[in-house]
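Customer ticket, subject: "Can you confirm the structure for ABC3 transporter permease C-terminal domain-containing protein?"

Message body: Hello, I'm evaluating your service for our small team and ran a test protein. I'd like someone to confirm that this is what the system normally returns, since I don't have a reference to compare against.
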Amino acid sequence: MQIRPILAALRRHRLATLLIAMEVALACAVLCNACFLVVQRWKLIQIHSGVDESALAVLTVNGFDPSQAADVNARMLTGLRSIPGMQSVTVINQVPFGPQAGAAGVSHDPGSFKNTIGVVDFVLGGPGTYEALGLKLVEGRLPQADDYRPATNFAPPDAQVLVSRALADHAWPGESPLGKDFWCDKLHFRVMGVVDHLARAHPHDWGTQATEWTVFTPTLPGGSLAGTYLLRANPHDLPRVLHEARDAVAKIAPHVVLDQENSQTIGDLRADYFKSDRIMIDLLIGVIVTMLGVTALGIVGLASFWVQQRRRQIGIRRAIGATRTDILRYFQTENFLIVTGGIVLGMALAYALNLLLMQHYELPRLPVYYLPIGALVLWGLGQLAVLGPALRAAAVPPVVATRSV
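Agent reply: Thanks for trying us out. I re-ran your input and got the following:
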């Protein structure tokens, strides 16, 4: 199959060819970036929280004076632990996918803004919280009884803490973090261990790199650590246990107010937190399907129009010896050239669109491998779309040429 006659035919139909090529280019740009966004959102939804989500729930109360924190904690811990099926109840300041309570910037030096590490989430938990969460220690040691100290302000002073592996790799790349010191202004912390995973309360707000920059700080309940309780039960019993715990609050501490919205299982908190991301994924998939469908219809319409216009030409070629395969290959090659031109332009548009998204929505750069994947999809779509009209063209009998004379 020679390309020159095909190009000559396309030059005689410049406008139609340009319109289809522009449609393919737009589809290429949208396809690459929309697929990239879908993958980014999907990765975020699949984040490993590091905790035993199926067995955990959180119950939050408020409306009490800070001076009543110790009394509220004592009442709530005693009352909630008496619920049948409750395995443990501990005090915590935040959980993955719940309200954020402990984000702060940290650095390698006290009071320094030059040698910074970044903004991390501080998870403050009372005795038994580490075990209840189901965290996995990968290096160092677990908190001991004397590691739990009262928080004088934001957190206990000179606290021995656990850091997530993601934070350790970021703060001390290529080094063991054990025994390393870091500061939150002048508040000092020392690393005693590393946990495999521990997600932030709001991972969505920090990008994929920093979703697990967390510090678990053993803290004695009281003061600022009050009102939020981590409940652990058998996964089959957890919905009932949480329901009974919510109902029991009015009897345990009548003067507090139950936070209905944030008193849920961790699984439900995750589902609510990522609800908008799932909607966005559905919308993007809808945009991809619609764009590809419109592009395919455009190719089918143009190919059908050209087949109708070229029936006499096709009949003449058949009369002088062209086979059905020759006719089919002609239209498929013609479509391939048009789609290829659109793809080349579309790759440039894809990067331009990605730069715009990076500037306004802080997205990472589009990986290069999305471009050949998008090209393959559009080449395949083009060949499938032109197949029907091409088969009809190949079926034109040679007698059509003689009837037109």
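A couple of notes from the result: The chain has twelve helices and twelve strands. Residues 324-361 form the longest helix (38 residues). Feel free to reply with more questions.
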